[in-house]
What we know:
Number of strands: 13
Strand content: 15-25%
CATH superfamily: Alpha/Beta hydrolase fold, catalytic domain
Distance between the termini: 43 Å
CATH architecture: 3-Layer(aba) Sandwich
CATH topology: Rossmann fold
Largest sheet: 8 strands, mixed
Number of domains: 1
Helix content: 10-25%
Amino acid sequence: MKLWIIALCALVACGSVHAKTTTWQPTAGHTQIPLWPGTPPDAKPMTGPEYTRTSTKLIGGKPVVTVSNVSQPTMTVYAPTGANTGTAVVVIPGGGFEFLAIDLEGTDACDWLTSHGITCVLLKYRVPSIPYVLQCNCRPHNLALSVPSLEDLQRTMRLVRFHAEQWHVDPHKIGVLGFSAGGFLVAEISTNFDRQLYAPMDAADKESARPDFAMLIYPGHIATDDDQFNPNLPITRATPPTFLVQAEDDYTDGVHQSLVYYTALAKAHVPAEMHLYAHGGHAFGLRRTKLPITHWTALADVWLRTIGMLPK
Length: 312
């Protein structure tokens, strides 16, 4: 099953969209920071320039803005709006490695995090970036690592630690939050943080890429249809504490994605917390609806305090 095709249909293709617009830009007062000093490693040619689209399909009463053809990955830093806790979270939007749901699974998450005293770093990683087999760079499949995207995430983690003092961040309290394909990237960085994928560029690449905690929201690519665990995610005791949320009626990726990952974490004695809801489907983000699943952020807040990433 091509998960990215289903995700693409669910967010954009199955509903009408407004015309393409120019390159995505953050709100006033925020600047995109390039991840790489030059051409990104393993750069692939794009079919055209970066562009955004706004879908008329509403989630939580609002449309969804997507970004496509990202060849120059960036991060945007959002400072806490309340008392700074020293904690930072790199936010990773989903989109099936074809596009990025930049508001639903990006800026919306930053609004929540910064209101809790957390520095949010929004990652705009390279897409399309279809997962491929790392060893041979051959045909794509749903369990392979999304190498260019993972390179971007490794680089982001290292840059955040490198600038921790400047950004008033505790270098031991830097986590990751990802949705759908972004949730798979969270699993990738949680288990492949020390895998050398690119040649070091500068002093920032001496920093660790390991997250101190990880949050996966309706992740995909973790398990096969017959519940076999993805062998490209080598879980060890070094895998960070993990928080999982998924709906039982998620028919895009399937609730077994979280179940299989949680079971693998438990076998390795990695602290983990999982929340499953009866209803919610896929790609609900943080937007409030009548469904209980849209209040998952309250549970995440408690979990962050439980593991010592926020004050109790």
